[in-house]
Write a structure and sequence with these properties.
Low-confidence stretches: none
Strand content: 25-35%
Number of strands: 35
Length: 325
Amino acid sequence: MSLTLRAIVDALGGELHGVDSVSIERLAPLQTATPDSLSFLSHPKYRKELAASQAACVIVSPAMQEAAAARGAHIVVDDPYLYFAHLTQLWKRTHERHSSARIHATAVIDADTHVDETARIGAFCVVERGARIGANTVLKSRVTVSEDCIIGARCLLHPGVVVGADGFGLAPSKGTWVKIEQLGAVRIGDDVEIGANTCIDRGALDDTVIEDGVKLDNLIQIGHNVHIGKHTAMAGCVGVAGSAVIGAHCTVGGGAIVLGHLTLADGVHISAATVVTRSIHKPGQYTGMFPIDDNAAWEKNAATLKQLHSLRDRLKALEKKDDAG
């Protein structure tokens, strides 16, 4: 099903320059766009790709309008990337084909649950006793929502997500481990998206909490009693240990780790592969990774790093000697 440029602009806004009856058959990047495609330019560094693109129309900012006009049809908006995001949503709404069954025949849903009549439950999902699934929430295939866990409205859980598995709680006893029963649950707010095979553990006593608008990528581990503030986003393979508190509007890059019982303030941004070992109380960008190098140079730098403490002590001793002199 195609959409005309006029239909797109009527739905999303923007200032169209070109023939509004042109039909768009696909959305595509500038480099691979064909004459039936709609593309976008999010950054001036891709200006060369704009000039060479075969797209029927390109979404651009006011600053790039002149360059776009030299190429052909274009839509001018304040934020092309955001406009393209809304465009993808429009495209999916007009092209998506849902299964006729709102709840797949293979899903297992305990009788003592509440699943909103607008929610959709995919193949081989499990919703256990006391769980609650909110309005217009979608569980893709093989999602597990354990007992007493709550998922809000308009959430999207991708295949393999597990909400409410036991947290990792163990007490040492004479060389063995004694399980601490995990008696809390998981509470997920509205408009949350959780990527494939991500796991969110239930709390030990209090609940694990994921607030409204949080976005979690694939293969993320959220430990028990973690609290994640509104509209925070985490990239793939992040690990957050138990009882960490992460503020609102934070970002955590792929492969980063946040140790347990730490607090990150609102607006903290953690770079990929960083290990957060202390609480951060001031907004900003934080990085803690050792730069990659060829192995021989890396080993020399790592050996030097190990000597920094003794070098600092020697430097202090020399400073004291100079002061005494």
